Every structure is written in structure tokens, then in C-alpha cells.
Amino acid sequence: MKVPAAFLIRLINETIEEEIRKVKGGYKVYPKNPASGKKRRKALSKKPMPYKKALRQLQAVERSKSMREDTLDELEQLTMYKKYDMGIDDVPDKTKGHENIIGHT
User: Fold this and answer.
1) How do the pLDDT tens digits run along the chain, 105 residues long?
2) How far apart are CA 7 and CA 13, in angstroms?
């Protein structure tokens, strides 16, 4: 089954939270929505750049987001003792000697 190109472009634009906009002197990558508590959107770069470089920046941002999501998934799968090895002290069910263990690490 072939998927129309227009449908793919629309789907990509809906899932990506940033956009490339033309500004004086080149292009910049902006978030689609302003940060919480802000009224204006702030560009992710200070200087304007060529379109290809802005596209690479957008790709790097998306890659970074996917890596962050993968890391969080891996942390959720760790056992309690491996979390201690990594320095994470968030253990939901504390045992009787839990305070002694935390105090000595």
C-alpha cells in the first residue's frame, strides 16, 4: 500500500515540536509552542544559518529527545540494587534498614 507524500509530510509536521522558519539572514529553528510561562517563542540558535544547517540542527534535537526517552525506559526496567549502584535513591517500598543503607552510601 502506497502512502501519499502529502500525508507523510503532514504527519511529520504534527509529531515534531519544532519548526524551521525563515528570518533575516537565513533560517532558525523555533519551537512550535512557547515555553511554559512565556508568551514568545525563543529560537534554538542565536545566529541565522543556511537551510541545510538548520535541518541538521532539527535532526540533532529530535535525536537527543529520542535518546532521552530510551534512557528513561532503561531506568524503569532496572532492579532496586542496580539503581543503588547508579546512585539513584528513589525506592518506593522502604525496608526496616533502608535509612541505614542510604546514610552510608
Assistant:
1) 788 888 877 877 777 788 888 999 999 988 888 877 887 788 888 899 999 998 898 888 888 887 777 776 776 666 655 555 556 555 555 666 666 665 555
2) 10
Q: Which domain holds residue 87?
A: 20-104
Closest CA to 23 of 54, 56, 59, 57: 54
Measure the CA–CA gap between 64 and 62, rounded to whole angstroms: 5
Beta strand spans in the chain (E):
18-23, 26-31
d(CA 52, CA 4): 24
Domain count, the chain: 1
User: Does any domain span residue 6?
Assistant: no
- Asked if the structure places residue 7 within a domain, the reply is no
